[in-house]
């Protein structure tokens, strides 16, 4: 079971270490390029759980009006340096401090996996609330359900917790929220020297 305060405090404590391990390379970048090409010119895009602002928020800045949201102050401080043109918002993905229908698109890379399982549907519903009609969401998830914690993540002595719903449950939650899955990719990414499987969902609102 994830405790959100623990996750937030942990990212505050290990933001620099996480950023040093987060690769700028890999197919996640190509998938984001593909997604951005589907958007209108000067699209407004929210990166939810933007973390340190690399690689996603920085890449968004090149072709969109970008905003990043995260609940960790230390992560946002790094994002200020790494993506200086983005607007940054401190807030919780389960209750976005954003008006309805504000964004053409949302990206969420490796952030839903830290939210309590029973709140995943609420987060996806929040994404839909702040999207414009026909808005798009690009979401990174893991293929298999897994929940657990690591008391010494990345050798920092700091605990991290995950609640991964897996691809099947996430597919269902996206559809429940009124999103059509336009594309889906399963790729291997390298993080901190380990390979991990990631599923990307490219989706669009039905209306
Ligand atoms: C694994 S990092 C991913 C950062 C970045 N998106 C990336 O691709 O490297 C997860 C990020 O999600 C943020 N996060 C986790 N739960 C959150 C929540 N409930 N609300 C806002 N941010 C959250 C964490 O603070 C952290 O910065």
Note the gap between the termini: 35 Å
Strand content: 25-35%
Q: Helix count?
A: 6
Rg computed from alpha carbons, rounded to a whole number of angstroms: 16 Å
What count of structural domains? 1
Structural class: alpha/beta
Shape: globular
Q: Give the cofactors and ligands.
A: S-adenosylmethionine
Uncertain spans: none
CATH fold annotation: Rossmann fold
What is the CATH class?
Answer: Alpha Beta
Count every beta strand, where a strand is a DSSP E run of 2 or more residues. Answer: 9
Strand order of the largest sheet: 3-2-1-4-5-9-8
What this model shows, in words?
By secondary structure, this protein is α/β, with parallel strands linked by helices. It has a single domain (4-205), classed as 3-Layer(aba) Sandwich (Rossmann fold), CATH 3.40.50.150. The protein is 32% helix and 32% strand. The strands form two sheets. A seven-stranded mixed beta sheet has the order 3-2-1-4-5-9-8, with helices on both faces. It has a two-stranded antiparallel ribbon with strand order 6-7. Helix 5 crosses helix 6 (167-176). The longest helix is centred in the first third of the chain and has 18 residues, at 4-21. It is globular, with a radius of gyration of 16 Å. 41% of the residues are buried. The mean pLDDT is 96. The structure holds S-adenosylmethionine. S-adenosylmethionine binds at residues 4, 7, 11, 22, 49-51, 56, 70-72, 75, 92-94, 109-111, 114-115.
Write a brief structural summary.
With 207 residues, this protein is an alpha/beta fold. The protein is built from 6 helices and 9 strands. It has a single domain (4-205), classed as Rossmann fold (3-Layer(aba) Sandwich).
